[in-house]
Structure formats: C-alpha cells, structure tokens
Amino acid sequence: MIVFNEALERLADYSSDTDAGVVICTPMMALVDYLGLRLTAVTALPLKHGSMIYGSNDGGSTVLDSDPLVSARMESILSHGLNLQRHLVGNADVGKWLYGPGDLECHLGTDGRVYALDFGRLLPPEAPNGLGERSIFFSFLRKERVLSSATPLNSDAFSNWSAKDPDFLEHNKHVAAATAQIYCDIQSFASELMTDSEPISPEYVDARTMASLWWLTLTQTQQLG
Question: Which of 124, 222, 109, 105 is nearest to 179 (CA)?
C-alpha cells in the first residue's frame, strides 16, 4: 500500500501540471480501516459506458489508445516522470503500445475532463520469487528503484498483459536486474551496519525487505560471534 500511495502521489504531481495541455485528473481516494478490515473509498466520477479512451478494462481483449493528446500526456507522465517502458499490451493484431500497466484506464468524463483509474499496478513488479508467480500482482518495486534504473522498466513485466511484446523477455531481464540490485544493496547495508555507526540506508529498502536485512544482520552477527 505504501508503494501504491507513492505512485499515486507521483502520478498526481505530473498530471496536475496545467501547462502541459491535457490534464489527467485522478479521483479523490481514502483508506478506511475499521475492525481489522480495510476499505478503499473512491469518489463517484461523471463517467458513462464507452467513456474509456486509453487502456483496457477486460483483461487485454480490447485495448484502446484513441486520443493522441491523452496518449502524449500519458507518455510524458509515465515515461519521463516515472521511467516506465513503452510496451505492447494485448495481442499483436489488436494490441496497443502503451506506457504503464495495461489495466490503467483513462476515461473522458461527461464534464469534459480526462480521468485516470486503476493505479494498483502502476509501478513494475519485483521479479517472481519464493512468493510464487502471482507475486507480480502485489509485490512491486519502490518508486526510487524505478527512477534510478538506467533502463525504463515495464509495469507489465512477467505478466500476460505484455507477453506478445517482441521485447518481453528483455523487459523481464531489466526488471529482474532491478530486483536483484535491491537485495545486493541490502546485503551491503547489512555489512555496513556491522562496521559503521551511521550507515546509509538505500532509499528503496522498505518494511517488506527489512526482513531480509534482519536475517543478513543476524547471520553476520552469529558469524562474528
């Protein structure tokens, strides 16, 4: 959820630039925790059937990219702003070349505004690990790791959303390399903890990866003992 919030903030920062032509609006959202349950509340938007102009809402069977101004704005936000890789979404004959995940949608509202929806997979996934192949849908790279990558990263890496892209395997390698770098940095940080009173933590070490850091530190402590 932290990764999602950061990505949404990043998207909002770039989409609110009124000097860029098309403004991509995002709905107001709130997380409500009650009795151990978590609810995501989203404002109702002025949308109607057939309002989608970018992305897919049916698993990639139909992919849209019908407004050149919106397409250019999404390229600016997602490629230049978040370092995301352009890739083929859907089948080669009916697919579209998009930035960001295939299920990120843009709709033209009845009020004339363009609204973006479904940001859950905005940032690329970590390469599949011991959590299983489905981990790509809930285990994501942090924003700092994506921005620091020398190569743009594919939000749909390792998934069927971009499996027909001719560079699919190459995109997967880039995401795998970014994932591996995280754990190399964690290992270096663990070593620094044992020798430096003020080690510098990598920006993209979060609560999820702290478990690896704890284990490495514990192991090194036992070896020193």
Answer: 124
